[in-house]
Amino acid sequence: MGSRNEPYEAPAIQAFASELTAWREMTGLSKTELAETLGYTPQWIGQVEAAKSIPSKEFAQNLDTHFTTNGVFERQQKRIIETRHKSILPPGFTEYQEREAEANQIRGFDLMLIRGLLQTESYMRAIVGHDQDPDTAERLISERLKRQEILTRENPPHVWFTMDEAALRRSIAGPDVMREQLAHLLAMGERHNVSIDIVPMDQRYYEGLTGSFTILDFTNAPEVAYTESAGQGVLIQDPRRVATFAVMYNSLRGDALRVEESRALITSVMEEYG
Hints:
By secondary structure, the chain is α/β, with parallel strands linked by helices. Helices cover about 50% and strands about 15% of the residues.
């Protein structure tokens, strides 16, 4: 199953890796010796122990048989699969999501995609289903839909979402999906706690072109910011860096159309989808 250069942060994968290392060292085996005994390569054993590969059920069963563990590794592997959808989230996003639920204000800018809090289920499927197995995709979609409830709950946060017109025009899926998505933006923009505005395509260079980001405000805690690039997420808590994002957001909002003009643009693009 999946291998990568950086270790997975998911606790279940980390636990499996630690357990394997502990059992191997307790029995005095090197990676090469264990690999030869079980019929794997030393590189594979090293990848699993470094939490850079997701072990298969067969591999877990072989470990249980070899070390006589009464199913320890198979149970841990099952836990990995049950929580695998969390392991593919960008580093920093899990903590961000926890903080997002506590925020009383959210400000965000999106360059190329409509953000998760505003996505329809069909739009989500076009994105999440692109490179995930069906079970993982379903879990990710379910969690994202649940996460959206913060905008409609009792005492919801006040949110200001700005996006580039490119996010409206990028045809992530077919016309029906895009029409539904843009109609959803218009509906969400009618809520008292939601403000959506658009930076038009004819705007020349502006600071938002450097990438998407979000700022979370709290009643009794300092602001934090979050940004992603190439699948890597960063939760920023240093006050000076967070302030830089706040200044950037205020600046790019000056480049956006007013809310009513933005609604007219969203309507226009929606009609272009037929």
